[in-house]
Amino acid sequence: MRAVWLREFGGPEVLEPGDAPDPVPGLGQVLVEVAFANTTFVETQVRAGTGPFRPPLPIVPGNGVGGVISAVGPGADPGLAGQRVVTSTGGSGGYAQRVAVDASAVFAVPDALALDAAVALLADGRTATGLVHATSVRPGDRVLVEAAAGGVGGLLVQLAKAAGATVVGAAGGPAKVAHVLGADEVVDYLAPDWASSVGEVDVVFDGVGGAIGTAAFGSLRPGGRMAVYGLAGGSWAEVSEADAASRGVSLVRSIGSPAEMRAFTESALSEAAAGRLVPVIGQRFPLEKAADAHAAMESRTTIGKTLLVA
Fold first, then answer.
1. What does the pLDDT read at residue 238?
2. How many CB atoms neighbour CB 79 within 10 A?
3. Are 60 and 74 in contact (CB under 8 A)?
4. 181-196 pLDDT, tens digit each
5. Cβ distance 69 to 49 under 8 Å?
6. With 80 as the cut, is the pLDDT of residue 286 above it?
7. How many Cα atoms sit within 13 Å of 171 on the Cβ side?
8. CA-to-CA dists, residue 302 to 81, 179, 210, 297, angstroms
9. Average pLDDT in the chain
10. Is 183 helix (H, G, I), strand (E, B) or coil?
């Protein structure tokens, strides 16, 4: 089968298309014919060797896919064959035409939901749903969403609005600011002293980290909540538990158990099928062009979700 290999850490060009053995579903597993593969900014950091972990090489990267189950291994429900599903792969193997995964790891895609939208929601939808739950967003809250033109950020704007909050969407640069949809206010966090224009907020969703996340922390009212979940800026926000405690701010760094994460994923898929949650798929690249997808994400020019088409 066709796949994309990571044999050494480095720039996007180290992602090389090639052949890989066809996976065979084992005990309790299913084989998925991949139609779309998810990409995340963390995957660009892992590829570069600067991410939160360094896997042993070589590997086929990718941790989220969507497609149709074509074969069922021993011990798995034969009725799963032919179903449209999305699934995580366990950390690698997603940039490929086929994956074998535990049957318990798949999520059926509702009939009313397109498969590409379901893939766009697999990681981002459960993350956004879990973050809104963990920070207890409620009517009357004023919420700051960083990277609001991105995959998770765009969903956070929608979910926070649905919870009754007033939302300030923050993005980097005029082009990104123009693509923040649904927020009550929009700010450019590349502008000098941008945080002063935000005013006080009750909740911060920090997916950028670094100086941006640290500045956002300063906008929180006493009793506020800050969800620290990303480091697109290259480092975590410089906010300690002591800093937060001194201002009466709660830091949220974990959003749930495996069972809760599954429930968050199911909720996101259900809300999308009902038309109440809409992922933005800004870019699509052929599987063989995974290097181009990574280069685009690192250029900070992408909007919403970037998918690979297998």
1. 86
2. 9
3. no
4. 999 999 999 999 899 9
5. no
6. yes
7. 27
8. 35, 10, 20, 6
9. 95
10. coil
R_g (Cα) of the chain, nearest Å: 19
Q: How far is residue 91's CA from residue 70's CA, in Å, rounded to a whole number?
A: 21
Q: Kindly report the length of the chain.
A: 310
pLDDT of 247 > 80? The answer is yes
Among left, alpha and beta (phi > 0; psi -120 to 50; other), residue 209 is left
Q: Please state the pTM of the whole predicted model.
A: 0.93
Report the helix count and the strand count for the chain, using DSSP H and E.
Answer: 9, 15
- Give Cβ neighbours of residue 249 (< 8 Å, ≥ 6 apart): 217, 220, 222, 223, 224, 225, 226, 243
pLDDT digits (tens, 9 = 90+) for 70-122: 999 999 999 999 999 999 999 999 999 999 999 999 999 999 999 999 999 99
Q: Label residues 193-202 b or e (16+ Cβ within 10 Å = b).
A: ebbeebeebb
